[in-house]
Every structure is written in C-alpha cells, then in structure tokens.
Amino acid sequence: MALPARAEVVVVGAGLAGLSAAVRLAEAGLDVHVVEASGHAGGRLATERVDGFVVDRGFQVLNTGYPRVAADLDVPALEMGWFWPGAVLRHEGRAARLVDPRRHPATALGTLRAPIGSLPAKTAIAAYSARAGYLPLERLLRTPETTAEQRLRAAGVGDEALERFFRPFLAGVLLESELTTSSRYLDLLWRSFARGRIGLPRHGMQAVGEQLAARLDAQRLHLDLRVSSVTDGSVTTASGPVRADAVVVASDPDTAATLLPGVEAAAPRRVTTHLHVLPASPWEDPLIVLGTPGGRLVNSVVLTDAQPAYSPDGRALVASSSLGPTTEAEVRDEIARLHDVGTTELEHLTSVTVTHAQPATLPPLQLRRPVDLGGGVFVCGDHRDTPSIQGAMASGARAARAVLRALRPKER
User: Fold this and answer.
1) Predicted confidence band at 2 (pLDDT cuts at 50, 70, 90)?
2) pTM, to two decimals
3) Which pLDDT score, from 0 to 100, does residue 408 have?
4) Are 163 and 197 in contact (CB under 8 A)?
5) pLDDT at 55 over 80
6) Environment class of residue 332 by beta-carbon count within 10 Å: exposed (0-12), middle (13-18) or buried (19+)?
7) Do the beta carbons of residue 198 and residue 85 sit within 8 Å?
8) In which band, very low, low, confident or very high, does the pLDDT at 232 lie, cut at 50, 70 and 90?
9) Using one digit for the tens of pLDDT, what is the confidence trace for 353-370?
10) What is the Cα–Cα distance from 206 to 88, expressed in whole angstroms?
11) Looking at the predicted structure, is the pLDDT value of residue 412 above 80?
C-alpha cells in the first residue's frame, strides 16, 4: 500500500521507539502509518547473515530486567539463548569467573576468590548490587547524582574491582571507558542486571523490532522511504507530502535534530565489533570475557555459547568489541590471548563499526524528556530517556499517550 496523502498519525522511524508508539496508537484505533528510511524494522537492532552465521549490528543483547521488555514483548517467542550473569576476567595470564551466586550457587567460591580486591571490597560490591537492584525506585533516583566512577568509588568497590571488572564491563555497555556517565543511569542499569537475564534471540536482535512490527498492518509500514522535512501537520517524503493530525519523529538524535529545530543532537558513542569463527568454544559456560587494562578490547564473547543458532554448523562465533577504531589485524593477538587460543585458529568473518551506536548520558540524567513539542508534533527515542532498549520503548509509550491525549481527549 502506498503512503496516503492523509493520515491521522505519521510515525517517522521504525526503531523500537517508533514501533512502540505506533503499536499503541494502532491498537487504540487510530489510522497510523510508519515511514522508515532503511529496509528493515528495528532501527539500530539490525541483523544479517554472513556465510550462514547470524551477525548483529555490533554486540547487543536483550535484557529482561528492562520493564518495557517484560511488559511489551513476547520473550519466549523470540526463542532466547541466555548468558550467565557475570563475566570472565584475566589477571596475570589466568582466567577468573565472577558469577552471580544467587543464580549459580556452585560458582560462589570461585567468585569469592576472584582477584578483584579484599573481602570488604567484595562485600561492598554485593551491597551496591543489592541497593541498586532492590531499593525502591523513587529512593534510588533521589540519590545525589555524580558520575558512574564516583558512584562506584563511593560504594567502596576498590581500585582492583574498578579497573579489572567494572571499567571493562561497563565500557562494553556504556560505550565509554572513563565512566563519566551519570551515576543515576548506572544505578538503573545495574538494577536491570540484578533483576533480569541477558540473552540473544534465535534469529538475531532484529527479531525484537520485527516482533513489534508484526503487530501492525503490514501495509502501514513503509520501508526504504526517507522523510526530508516535518512541519506542523505535514511530512514530506520522497513520494510526496502527507498531511497528518499528529507527527511522531522517532528517529536517531541527529536526524531528529535535523527535522525538528530545537531538538538537541546527543553526542554519539561508537563501537567496532570484530567477528571470528573458532572450530569450537574454549569455554564451558556462556560468559562475557572482559578486556584487560591497557588493551584495545573492552570485551570478547562466544555468542554461540549462549545462542547456538547463531552458527550454521556448530562452530563457535566470537564477537570482540573496541571503542576506538581498530582493524582486525590490530586486535587479533589480543582476542587469542583472552580466549587462550592460537591466532591461526581464528577465522575472521567480518567487522562492523557503528558510529552512532547510542547517545551519551552525562550528568544530569534527563529522564522522561518532553515528547510533545506542540502543534501536533511529537518526538521519541532513547535520546529522550536512557540510551537503551528500555529508554527507546518507554519514550515511544510516552509519545503514544501524548498523541492520544491530543487527538482523543474525551477518551483519556
């Protein structure tokens, strides 16, 4: 179905924010059309097949500790494969596992012996995890805001844990290693890890967006169609203008700032992920291997330990990520050392660089930024909340509620 000349609502962008908004509006009975510049639904959650292997656009995971994931997705239908809650760190050439003993009690002694500081420091880590995970959310958000590093230092985790565990682990999530991210976002993030599981859908991370898109009439999702301008009550695309009672711009921050004067573009984070194939996994358990201080990598992980369906033939698929621009040749030796394999065993599959992987979240954390810009124009995306699947979906839900208040005030 071609994009009509008139619609009640036009959503610009079929990422998780736009899809979350569109699904709610369509289920409320509104005439909704979604316009997406790329050829797939899901936005930054993109997946392709390379030589039969499932390759996501960078190393990404689905976290069931995010409230919107639990509420809005059919997680079992995604046929998830799960990582263990924890990581492997290498120190002085030896590997040590840090695993949440609540979920895997047999790992408790090994975690207690891990080289991340004294017993009081390890007790401080447990105390911080309990506080972030289970303190009432209102109280957690009232905690004075600092940076992520300052929060961890104030919690008493100690230098060894900070440098060997927290910095590389969080660098892989926040896409910055200085830990200048808002301490409030760190608290929310750690809360999700304490409460949820992280894993990979059988068919790749793009399946998350596709599941949301499947709840829309396929004829109302218009792919490969770029929007060039947005004004009050109108959207201009390559196929012509569309009049609408409401326009929801659910694009990346840079595109939103271009289409909507007054919306700020967030400083983007970037990441490069190198994919390799091994004959078999060198590990027994599905855990992320952390980069070592002074190395180029923040982490390296055997994806197929968690989700075997990522491989077409039983071989192991390894994803290794760096924050700076790196070539495969520059990190090959480091990958081999992290997994204790020979460099000749690593078969390079592909490398993926994402220059706008997520917006930065420096203090002060701006949760629930306004989505109603007035004049029938709305905006959503993880740049309006937190740089995460949760932030994207939550902002999309808020935008949908704002549109409904504007167009159906008697029903609210």
Assistant:
1) confident
2) 0.95
3) 87
4) no
5) yes
6) middle
7) yes
8) confident
9) 999 888 999 999 988 999
10) 27
11) no
Distance between CA atoms of residues 75 and 198, nearest Å: 11
Angle, vertex CA 25, rays to CA 22 and CA 26, nearest 5: 80
User: What distances in angstroms separate CA 412 from CA 24, 64, 247, 347, 400, one per listed residue?
Assistant: 14, 30, 19, 57, 12
CA dihedral defined by 368, 370, 371, 373, rounded to 10 degrees? 180
Q: What is the DSSP string of 22-35?
A: HHHHHHTT--EEEE
The predicted-structure confidence for 112-131, as pLDDT tens digits, reads as follows 999 999 999 999 999 999 99
Angle at 285 between CA 284 and CA 289, to 5 degrees: 105
What strand order describes the sheet that includes 62-63?
62-63, 198-200, 81-82
Q: Which strand ranges, in their side-by-side order, compose the sheet holding 297-302?
A: 94-99, 86-91, 288-290, 297-302, 316-322, 268-278, 347-359
Q: Which of helix, strand or coil describes residue 90?
A: strand
Angle at 200 between CA 387 and CA 295, to 5 degrees: 65
The one-letter amino acid at 230: V
Q: Left if phi > 0, otherwise alpha if psi is -120 to 50, otherwise beta: which for 157? A: alpha
Average pLDDT over residues 161-185: 97
Report the C-alpha gap between 396 and 404 in whole angstroms: 12
| Torsion over CA: 42, 47, 48, 54 (sign) | negative
Give the tens place of pLDDT for each residue, 5-28: 999 999 999 999 999 999 999 999
For residues 99 and 102, what is the distance between their CA atoms, to the nearest angstrom? 9
Q: Is the pLDDT of residue 1 over 70?
A: no
Q: Show the DSSP H helices in 104-178 as ranges.
A: 108-112, 119-134, 137-141, 148-155, 158-161, 167-174
Tokens matching residue 26? 């369509």
